[in-house]
């Protein structure tokens, strides 16, 4: 079994690569990543020299390079995570999101279709998507199911919705074996410190302001990234082709409540007096088009494929804080940009 994982140098992708490389030593795993600002091969140091793993630097917007890789790789499956993933960046540069998330996904679909050439037995194109395609919910009522109509609001979620539609269109039109999952907000180790939790952990460490958008009333549904990786494994191996599965932890938090909990954990871990970190909270201008609330029903995945999350949020947040505090050099290399030289240092001359 040879699986191509795209975006494996990113936050979730690195957890998925680690999971598959360690759990399935008889599978070959190829990690394709363009190493944008969000790609960091240092995330995979612990498995980089495993015999069933290799890294290929390539850009999914480069159709020619992707076709060549599929010809050479003879992949049985694709787990597609490569994407521009940050909503704020999509507001300032939407076109980049269309290129990677839409055009890049279509390039992969075309390459898989050409390489498999109708011989679809044992093949699967698994597209990783987001709950943001469903739009937004009222405070305290409603939940996203697989039947919720798409209603994306940000350029990021519009690009992910579009890529989901293309994956379904290739299943319906060409019979390309495909599956999609839509997951809620992930948290955990190796997340780029532009996203809420690692950004705020880093700012608290450095006694910098914590920029809370609007009134901090927005609600997100949080899932430990390791549990997302295990869900992806279950779906990859057991899903019915053509289906969509929602993934989430039934774990809604209002931003301000989460931030106050995080501040209190950080005070305790850093030996600061209770309330010290919360003084860094600064209310700033709201994100444009800010979705009020996400909540996801992962009942189908639980009922049909037997997946359940392993960790309660409070425990997961403690573990996450511990990881960032125990790995200050990772945070420093990421925030200073030094991590971007790692690929040349490790792969020069290969
Ligand atoms: P990330 O930004 O941490 O990582 C994205 C990876 O994709 C990086 O390694 C980057 O180098 C790579 N990449 C970007 N453009 C590329 C291109 N043109 N060619 C090849 N590689 C490219 O993202 P993440 O948070 O790990 O998200 C991974 C996937 O999961 C995305 O598809 C995202 O939409 C989805 N998702 C994320 C979350 C979340 O909470 N972070 C939740 C649900 C779904
Ligand atoms: O729901 C899944 C999505 O979750 C994924 O598809 C995206 O890739 C991922 O980035 C994430 O999107 P969010 O926009 O929800 O995540 P972010 O960490 O950017 O923000 C979480 C909440 O915190 C959101 O309501 C905005 C708010 N926020 C965020 C930042 C970075 C702040 O108040 N201040 C901040 O500085």
TrEMBL record:
<dbReference type="GO" id="GO:0008460">
    <property type="term" value="F:dTDP-glucose 4,6-dehydratase activity"/>
</dbReference>
<dbReference type="InterPro" id="IPR005888">
    <property type="entry name" value="dTDP_Gluc_deHydtase"/>
</dbReference>
<dbReference type="Pfam" id="PF16363">
    <property type="entry name" value="GDP_Man_Dehyd"/>
</dbReference>
<dbReference type="InterPro" id="IPR016040">
    <property type="entry name" value="NAD(P)-bd_dom"/>
</dbReference>
<keyword id="KW-0520">NAD</keyword>
<protein>
    <recommendedName>
        <fullName>dTDP-glucose 4,6-dehydratase</fullName>
        <ecNumber>4.2.1.46</ecNumber>
    </recommendedName>
</protein>
<keyword id="KW-0456">Lyase</keyword>
<feature type="domain" description="NAD(P)-binding">
    <location>
        <begin position="4"/>
        <end position="320"/>
    </location>
</feature>
<dbReference type="InterPro" id="IPR036291">
    <property type="entry name" value="NAD(P)-bd_dom_sf"/>
</dbReference>
<comment type="similarity">
    <text>Belongs to the NAD(P)-dependent epimerase/dehydratase family. dTDP-glucose dehydratase subfamily.</text>
</comment>
<dbReference type="GO" id="GO:0009225">
    <property type="term" value="P:nucleotide-sugar metabolic process"/>
</dbReference>
């Amino acid at each position: 079994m040879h699986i191509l994982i795209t975006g494996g140098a990113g936050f979730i992708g690195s957890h998925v690569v680690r999971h598959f490389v360690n759990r399935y030593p008889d599978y070959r795993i190829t990690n394709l990543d363009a190493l944008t600002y969000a790609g960091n091969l240092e995330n995979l140091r612990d498995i980089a020299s495993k015999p069933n793993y290799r890294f290929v630097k390539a850009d999914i917007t480069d159709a020619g390079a992707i076709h060549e890789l599929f010809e050479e790789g003879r992949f049985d499956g694709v787990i597609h995570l490569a994407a521009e993933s940050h909503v704020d960046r999509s507001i300032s540069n939407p076109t980049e999101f269309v290129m990677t998330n839409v055009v890049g996904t279509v390039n992969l679909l075309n390459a898989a279709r050409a390489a498999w050439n109708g011989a679809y037995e044992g093949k699967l194109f698994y597209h990783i998507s987001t709950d943001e395609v469903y739009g937004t919910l009222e405070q305290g009522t409603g939940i996203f199911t697989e039947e919720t109509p798409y209603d994306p609001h940000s350029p990021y979620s519009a690009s992910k919705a579009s890529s989901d539609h293309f994956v379904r269109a290739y299943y319906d039109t060409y019979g390309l074996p495909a599956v999609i999952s839509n997951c809620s907000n992930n948290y955990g180790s190796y997340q780029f410190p532009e996203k809420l939790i690692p950004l705020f952990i880093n700012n608290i460490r450095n006694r910098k302001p914590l920029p809370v958008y609007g009134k901090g009333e927005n609600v997100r549904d949080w899932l430990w990234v390791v549990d997302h990786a295990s869900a992806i494994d279950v779906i990859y191996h057991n899903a019915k082709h053509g289906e969509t599965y929602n993934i989430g932890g039934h774990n809604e938090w209002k931003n301000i409540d989460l931030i106050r909990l995080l501040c209190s954990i950080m005070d305790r871990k850093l030996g600061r007096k209770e309330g010290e970190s919360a003084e860094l909270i600064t209310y700033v201008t709201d994100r444009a088009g800010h979705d009020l609330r996400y909540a996801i029903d992962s009942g189908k995945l639980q009922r049909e494929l037997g997946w359940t999350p392993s960790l309660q949020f409070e425990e997961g947040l403690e573990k996450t804080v511990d990881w960032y505090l125990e790995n200050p050099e990772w945070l420093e290399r990421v925030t200073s940009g030094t991590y971007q030289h790692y690929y040349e240092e490790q792969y020069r001359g290969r």
